Amino acid sequence: MGARAAGAPAAMLLARAGLRVLCIERTRLGSDTLSTHALMRPGILQLTKWGLLDAVIDAGTPPIQRTLFHYGAEHVPVSVRPAAGVDALYAPRRTLIDRLLVGAAAAAGVSFRFGCSVVGLEQPPSGPVTGVIIRDRDGSVRAERAGLVIGADGRRSSVAEAVRASSKFTGSFASAFVYGYFRDLPVAGYEWFYGPGVSAGAIPTNDGLICAFVGASPARLAALVEAGGPGHAVGVLAGECTLGERLRGATRVEGLRYMRGMPGYLRRSSGPGWALIGDAGYWKDPLSTAASSRRSSSVARAQVALAHVPKTMRWLTRSGCRTAYRTAIGPPCDMPKSANRSSPMVSTTVSRSCTQASSVKEPRGTSQSDKPDPRSS
């Protein structure tokens, strides 16, 4: 399921529950990926529970005490009230939080393979998934058997495609965004800006940087990018809200990244020998504002489900997994009706080639954007 925001913590929790876990990641350890970083209260609660929040704070991640929403000329501040042990929000950069999650998973006993791609699943005709086919960095191809294959391989999940996971719900509309990092951009916490046909945001993250982004309909943003590039699109859209004036006085420190947008969906998230978590199973348009916290919560629920399987078992049984998973996750997800009992390993797979996000210098990236909801603060 990869070593990103969904895959690494899921692997960590499964290993802590006593399962053997192999985590496969196409990218290199600690590499950056597209994200707005902002964690809401549920995400902070999970980091605390997992024992990782102190490391996030020690790395200099700025505490967020307020979220500010701008609706044209109207401004709505929402303070972060101390509750459930959370007195501030944080937006760690992915180069930090992903590495921390991998470290915690490795300490729990997870085996990692970076720079490897999953090119297929092992599945007999009309039978359960029993493993994955991996291409290593040297180009060699081999199979890894597993009692359960969990795909957290993003919106264009190769696991979902291989098992033909159907969509239960599909959205009708989408938003497209351009993201960048800036210095000397004054903000009062998490800030979001909304206007007719435009949205924007500014999120403080590590190293004194602000992750700022602008969004519009895919058609409009594509036209602006085609007319003058991502920088032109940022200037036009930010100028239509109160973020524009502040951006003109800031310094951009990295290339802009363009995410073309995709309607949301809810896929069937499990079957015989396989399961989907994170964006592979459930994707909301970035305008929905809470992707990272949603991932951490869904990962925790999946771990609770599998933790109900007796630890003395070295494989995943039909009755144990289905009952536990449905109890923790609910009706949208069905645990495998059968699973291969020959292997005690849970294999987690990823394919990072499935994305529309791109950088000015790099043609492709990974969209993992998230923004806050006033009710979440």
Summarize the structure.
This protein has 377 residues and is of the alpha/beta class. The protein is 27% helix and 27% strand. The strands form five sheets. Strands 3, 4, 11, 12, 13, 14, 15, 16 and 22 form a nine-stranded mixed beta sheet that branches. It has a six-stranded mixed beta sheet with strand order 5-1-21-9-19-18.
Structure description:
With 377 residues, the chain is of the alpha/beta class. The protein has a domain at 7-32 and 94-171 and 264-363: FAD/NAD(P)-binding domain (3-Layer(bba) Sandwich), CATH 3.50.50. Helices cover 27% and strands 27% of the residues. It has 9 helices and 23 strands. Strands 3, 4, 11, 12, 13, 14, 15, 16 and 22 form a 9-stranded mixed beta sheet that branches. Strands 5-1-21-9-19-18 form a 6-stranded mixed beta sheet. It has a 3-stranded antiparallel beta sheet with strand order 6-7-8. A hairpin with a 5-residue loop joins strand 13 (198-204) and strand 14. Helix 1 (7-16) runs parallel beside helix 8 (291-307) and helix 8 (291-307) packs antiparallel against helix 9 (318-329). It is globular, with a radius of gyration of 21 Å. It starts with 6 loop residues before the first helix and ends in a 9-residue tail after the last strand.
